[in-house]
Design a protein that fits this description.
By secondary structure, the protein is mostly helical. It has one domain. Helix content is 67%, strand content 0%. It is built from 7 helices and no strands. The longest helix is centred in the middle third of the chain and has 25 residues. The protein is globular, with a radius of gyration of 16 Å. Zinc ion binds next to helix 2 and helix 5.
Length: 161
Amino acid sequence: MILSTHAVVGGAIASLFPSDPILAAVAGFASHFAIDAIPHWDYPLRSISVGKGADNRRLRLNRDVVIDLFCVGVDACAGLALAIWLFATPASALVVSLGSIAAIMPDPLQFMHSIHQREPLMSLQRFHEWIHSDRKVGWRLGVSSQITFAALVSAVAQAFN
Ligand SMILES: [Zn+2]
């Protein structure tokens, strides 16, 4: 799933444990894998390779890499901002942010693995690839389904808050 969806779901889950940052972070991190198992759409990147067999060791900073980093950065920041806006109170803002960032983390860790193939990144990568749905959906359904899914998770979390 795209990072915004992960961030919103992680923030939603964290908002259920506003006084337990460790549980919020662990649950947010775990949520990444749970929702990656759902068939979904991911936006294409120009030069950074992701997923099975990704190898970025030869990646050099160029225009395409900067555009990729910009997209990923906007995606992550928008998700984090949305999660804070939807779920945080002044008292829970830190924990919600933590859950949200923890939910994004497995993807930067995939990138780390693609340039640095060592444990524990290798085991994590194997698990990530194993759980990640192989079924891709078209972008129209992909975008609308992720918005609907994030809204649904938000509504459920709000109901429990
Ligand atoms: Zn992922």
